[in-house]
């Protein structure tokens, strides 16, 4: 992967804040490779192993799966891609995720895109999207919001302290968000 020279951008924001949507657009315009930690985990769950089933259970409860699982999936995906410019979406979800990534992958992100959107808007988006995700039901959504506030916001605060956070309000249209996102990558 050329780890020493790799560029990593973390994309964080509440569930439904537009991480996946915007990452697809960044890939098209700016030549990054995109990995969604959640998508990698859902793929892992489909493997049907005991560890996969345990992860599915945690995801259904809106909990964060063990760092070792997520970081190993990310590390493997990064290696296999042969790329050196990575957008990592929905990760790190807590400070332990972040520490493990640093340990295993060997370097930190260049910056964090932080997609900020009110919970009532997120809730509507999640209930309206029809991706068939097991965790897009109101009960799990409430748990995901709580996990996000309790465990992911501290990651954003951590990077804010390092002056690495690019804060974008995402309760507007996809195109309006992408305009602001583009300005950061240009
Ligand atoms: N998840 C996790 N670690 C990660 C990313 C995701 O444990 O690094 C789990 C967690 O249970 C989360 C679920 O996968 O609620 C879905 O994550 P995703 O990023 O796909 O969705 P979001 O909640 O941001 O819409
Ligand atoms: Mg996503």
From TrEMBL:
GO molecular function, one term: AMP kinase activity
Highest taxon, organism lineage: Eukaryota
UniProt cross-references to Gene3D superfamilies, sorted A to Z: P-loop containing nucleotide triphosphate hydrolases
Reaction catalysis annotation: UMP + ATP = UDP + ADP
Signal peptide start-end: none
Enzyme class: transferase
Localization, UniProt: Cytoplasm
GO cellular component: cytoplasm
Keyword set includes Oxidoreductase: no
GO BP: 'de novo' pyrimidine nucleobase biosynthetic process; pyrimidine nucleotide biosynthetic process
Keywords annotated in UniProt: ATP-binding, Cytoplasm, Kinase, Nucleotide-binding, Nucleus, Pyrimidine biosynthesis, Transferase
EC identifiers of the protein: 2.7.4.3
Nucleotide-binding is among the record's keywords: yes
Protein family membership: Belongs to the adenylate kinase family.
Protein name in the entry: adenylate kinase
Species for this entry: Chloropicon primus
């Amino acid at each position: 992967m050329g780890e020493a020279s790799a560029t990593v951008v973390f994309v964080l924001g509440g569930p439904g804040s537009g991480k996946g949507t915007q990452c697809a657009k960044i890939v098209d315009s700016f030549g990054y490779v995109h990995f969604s930690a959640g998508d990698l985990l859902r793929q892992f769950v489909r493997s049907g192993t005991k560890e996969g089933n345990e992860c599915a259970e945690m995801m259904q409860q809106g909990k964060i799966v063990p760092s070792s699982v997520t970081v190993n999936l990310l590390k493997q995906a990064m290696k296999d891609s042969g790329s050196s410019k990575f957008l990592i979406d929905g990760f790190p979800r807590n400070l332990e995720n972040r520490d493990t990534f640093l340990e295993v992958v060997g370097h930190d992100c260049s910056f964090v895109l932080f997609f900020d959107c009110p919970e009532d808007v997120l809730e509507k988006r999640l209930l309206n999207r029809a991706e068939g995700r097991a965790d897009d039901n109101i009960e799990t959504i409430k748990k995901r919001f709580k996990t996000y506030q309790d465990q992911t916001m501290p990651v954003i605060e951590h990077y804010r302290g390092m002056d690495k956070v690019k804060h974008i309000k995402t309760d507007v249209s996809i195109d309006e968000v992408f305009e602001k996102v583009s300005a950061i990558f240009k």
